[in-house]
Specification:
- The protein has two domains: 130 residues, 3-Layer(aba) Sandwich (Rossmann fold), CATH 3.40.50.720; 104 residues, Dihydrodipicolinate Reductase, domain 2 (2-Layer Sandwich).
- The protein starts with a strand and ends in a 25-residue tail after the last strand.
- Strand 1, helix 1 and strand 2 form a beta-alpha-beta unit.
- The protein has a six-stranded parallel β-sheet with strand order 2-1-3-4-5-11, with helices on both faces.
- The protein is built from six helices and eleven strands.
- With 260 residues, it is of the alpha/beta class.
């Protein structure tokens, strides 16, 4: 069966990458390629929508897909837990609701880095995130950093919030799920994240760097192929992978393919 994919943000870097992948895949077909001048109605008739646009327009695209009964993979940053909860409320009242997959990062290595950070978070009370991206990335902190912070805060559970002294000072970064996040936007970078965990007499750094957009290819294809069978809200590529890590696979509240 061929899966017809509508790409919103088709002229951007991620959209161009996705179109090339779709055209090269034997089981995928480009249904529509939307840019900033396109009508959302062009999404209609697709088997799945891929949203790789801008935080300011992503919400309208997701709402259109949900109300039209089209599965959607959301690769646009800026989707916090609160914003995702709004989509969940919209979706749960519809009998024709299909899956909504929020994927902060399509890189398998990045997903593993966040999973390792969540595993380690229970053992360290001092935790901060430094994320760096190219100068053209408009949102900060990155969706990956937000996702990582939320996973670590959830994993800590009864351990409580991390130690974040002087968090009222702007130079200390933005608190996400109680964890300070520092963002760099610089020419010469593509994407990098470092999670630094401190304990008595030691620090642990979990780092991931993206060298080229090829790192996202496997994740994009996996998400598009799994989207048609998913229901409910799915958050993170980790929910589609068998990581073999208790407490990381299908995080609480994230949903899983086939589950509401």
């Amino acid at each position: 069966m061929t899966i017809r994919v509508a790409v919103a943000g088709a002229t951007g870097k991620m959209g161009t990458l996705a179109r090339n992948l779709i055209e090269a895949a034997g089981d995928l077909e480009l249904h529509a390629a939307l840019d900033s001048r396109s009508s959302l109605g062009e999404l209609d008739g697709a088997d799945v929508v891929l949203d790789v646009t801008h935080p300011a327009v992503s919400a309208d695209i997701v709402r259109h897909a949900v109300t039209s009964g089209i599965p959607i993979v959301v690769g646009t940053s800026g989707w916090s837990a609160d914003r995702i909860a709004e989509i969940h409320r919209l979706q749960r009242d519809r009998e024709d609701a299909r899956g909504v997959l929020f994927v902060p990062n399509f890189s398998v290595g990045s997903v593993l880095g966040s999973a390792f950070a969540a595993m380690a978070a229970r053992f360290f009370d001092s935790i901060e995130i430094v994320e760096a991206h190219h100068a053209g990335k408009v949102d900060s902190p990155s969706g990956t950093a937000v996702r990582t912070a939320e996973l670590m805060a959830e994993a800590r559970g009864a351990e409580g919030p991390v130690a974040a002294p002087h968090a009222d000072q702007r130079a200390r970064g933005q608190l996400v799920a109680g964890i300070p996040v520092h963002s760099l936007r610089m020419t010469g970078l593509l994407a990098e994240q470092r999670v630094i965990l401190g304990g008595t007499g030691e620090t642990l750094t979990i780092a991931h760097s993206t060298g080229s957009a090829e790192a996202y290819e496997a994740g994009i294809l996996l998400a598009l192929r799994r989207a048609t069978e998913a229901t409910g809200i799915v958050v993170g590529l980790d929910a589609l992978l068998d990581l073999g890590m208790p407490g990381v696979d299908a995080p609480a509240g994230a949903g899983t393919p086939g589950a509401r």
